[in-house]
Design brief:
Strand content: under 5%
Structural class: mainly alpha
Largest sheet: none
Number of helices: 8
Radius of gyration: 16 Å
Length: 154
């Protein structure tokens, strides 16, 4: 679960900071917040996690996920991972996989956030915004706060 959260937090960099062009090398303290143009520490952490997630995605093999689904077709986590994989390649497929993941694991707010963001990217802005508004109703958890920030950028 922790690996999944770290992986997903890296992908959230794509959602929250799509214009970031520079990566921070692992282990680097990042820019001093007192310097002009410094990014907030949270942005640096998300950017580092995003860079790591991209490296992980480049080696991801969806065939392994399909093998796992043949063994356990009710594994929502596998559908979630397929949604993440296809989000960068085929938004419609990603939406289908995220919906299946949510169907199998209804409390998975992380999958809901990625579904909403993918829908927005795919041109289904109203559907995605509705899901973000639902997530934003709970500002006391990470996914609710991220949804609130994402809504302000729509």
């Amino acid at each position: 679960m922790i690996k999944r959260m770290y992986f997903a937090s890296g992908l959230l960099g794509l959602l929250l900071f799509p214009s970031c062009k520079h990566t921070i090398p692992p282990g680097s303290p990042g820019p001093d917040s007192r310097t002009q143009g410094a990014r907030p520490q949270s942005a640096i952490i998300v950017q580092q996690a995003y860079t790591t997630a991209l490296r992980t995605l480049s080696g991801h093999d969806p065939d392994l996920a399909f093998q796992q689904l043949r063994q356990d077709p009710r594994n929502g986590n596998v559908y979630y991972r397929l949604g993440i994989y296809y989000r960068l390649k085929d938004a419609q497929k990603a939406i289908e996989y995220f919906k299946k993941a949510i169907e199998l694991q209804p409390g998975d707010r992380e999958a809901v956030l990625f579904l909403a963001s993918t829908q927005i990217v795919a041109g289904k802005k109203d559907e995605g915004a509705a899901l973000l508004r639902e997530l934003a109703k709970n500002p006391n958890d990470t996914w609710g706060r991220i949804a609130q920030r994402r809504l302000t950028k729509l």
